[in-house]
Amino acid sequence: MELLRVVFRHYRWPFIAVMALSLASAVLGVGVIAFINQRLIETGSPLSTLPQFIGLLALLLLVTLGAQLALTLLGHHFVYGLRARLVKRILDTDIERLEQLGSATLLASLSSDVRNITIAFVRLPELVQGVVLTLAAVAYLAWLSPSLLAVTAVWIAFTMGVGWLLVSRVYSHFHQVRESEDRLYQDFQSVIEGRKELALNRDRARHLFDEVYDTDARDYRYHIIRADTYHLSVNNWANIMMLGAIGVAFFLANGLGWASASVAATFALTLLFLRTPLIQAVGAWPTLINAQVAFDKLNSLELTEYQAGFEVDDALADWRQIELRGVTYRYASGEAGEGFVVGPIDLTLVRGEQVFLIGGNGSGKSTLARLLSGLYRPLEGEIRVDGRALTPAEWGAYRARFASVFTDFHQFDRLMGPNGDAPDPMLVETWLERLQMQHKLQFAGDRVTNPHLSQGQRKRLALLLAIAESRDILLLDEWAADQDPQFRRLFYRDLLPHLREMGTTVFAISHDDSYFAHADRLLEMRQGQLSELTGAQREGASRDAVARVGSE
Fold first, then answer.
1. Is 444 a member of any domain?
2. Which of 104, 136, 198, 433 can pair with 185 through a Cys bridge, CB separation 3.0 to 4.6 Å?
3. Do 15 and 98 sit in the same domain of this protein?
4. Looking at the domain assignment, is residue 448 inside a domain?
5. Mean pLDDT of each 10-residue bin along the chain, 552 residues long
6. Domain membership of residue 231 as a residue range
7. What is the distance between the alpha carbons of residues 430 and 479, in angstroms, rounded to a whole number?
8. In contact, 509 and 367? CB cutoff 8 Å
């Protein structure tokens, strides 16, 4: 079982201590049965044994409760660490892999998978107690009557064998349930993120509800009902067959004379004592199976291995020139070897310059921005800094040179300066005024308390956050597209010169041809290929960028 192996790997000695405590609990439980057999059944019930009996029960209660609480505590510490490691692995995984997985799959893993592992840990003490107690009880019964135990063991083995077949069906349906959850999360995402379109188009809303969501929900319902049916069947099968085992023990002892009445009574008492732990253990088993499905799903994500810390070596802080040499990136398609290709691209970016990039939809502009910033790793070619190719160890330091505002940016609410420290208050105050946001934003320390703004204002806030980071390169993906004409003019004529004075290198995707004259260089992406526009080409693009892009 993967769950136990992982716990043992991360918490070896605490786990061994908990198992020892569980063993002590099992031995005490069998000791109570032996005490009843020897002191109360065989020799009568003298009053002097009552304090000893009560003392044994109290000790059994304390040790059993201690073992279960210790295992539960260990489990919740493990789940806390598992969730933290999973989040850190997502943060460390390359964006290409995260985009392949999709947000619905990742959210399902962070919620459903971690929840299922948590539930398994809640039920794990029942399984451990049941197994350990059963082994200890079997050893005691073997000492009382090996022949009676042999028949009873065959009966119980048959019971557990049938139970195992039923549990295997539970596993199969739980696996399908987990796959259905992924599809349901995608449906939920469509309902939430597409709420405006669905409110306007009720036909699309009906199709999403009736033909997509309802199909996935029915599939989930089918498999969860089957899983619960087999689960309940296992519990009832084990419950009834354990009662049957008691009858078999009395028949062999009294009917066939295999053992004395006191031994038969002890067998019956022991089986009754084991009945609840065994049923609980069988009931806990499907949750462990569900946890195994969750572990399998987490492993299938193929995230980056866990590494502690977020430290980045600032070895490239003094760079002067960045080069992309023969850089190629391919988007995979359904057929091997096919897909949209960006590149090979040759590009040189000099510190302090301001470069604009134009191109039609699907030309590869945003892909080039991700390649330049290190978010995508080239399939071929290399990125060079001051004439030296980047090594894998320098990839984090290279990314640390960039701040960005992509078209699909996430709105954070906290201002952060270099190295995660508090931002320069004068810098923030100056740019609040330049962005005309000084009366729009409210702060509690460095946190914005009213981030619900219009799209244009959200982009201004995102730009403020990026500038506060004081990175060397500012990457803007059609940032001015959501600004009103007056502020768009302000951005190109006033804000870009301020960024130049700060020494910030700007790489901006833009189609605002009226302001191309403010760029040091004008680049164009066309069908995945990059070229620089100079002379008459640049003058033509500056007159009518739309016509040039439309000629692709």
1. no
2. 104
3. yes
4. no
5. 68 75 75 69 61 79 78 77 84 84 81 78 71 76 79 80 77 78 82 76 80 87 85 78 78 74 76 73 73 82 82 81 90 59 88 89 86 89 89 85 86 82 88 87 82 84 89 89 86 90 90 82 87 80 60 52
6. 2-300
7. 20
8. no
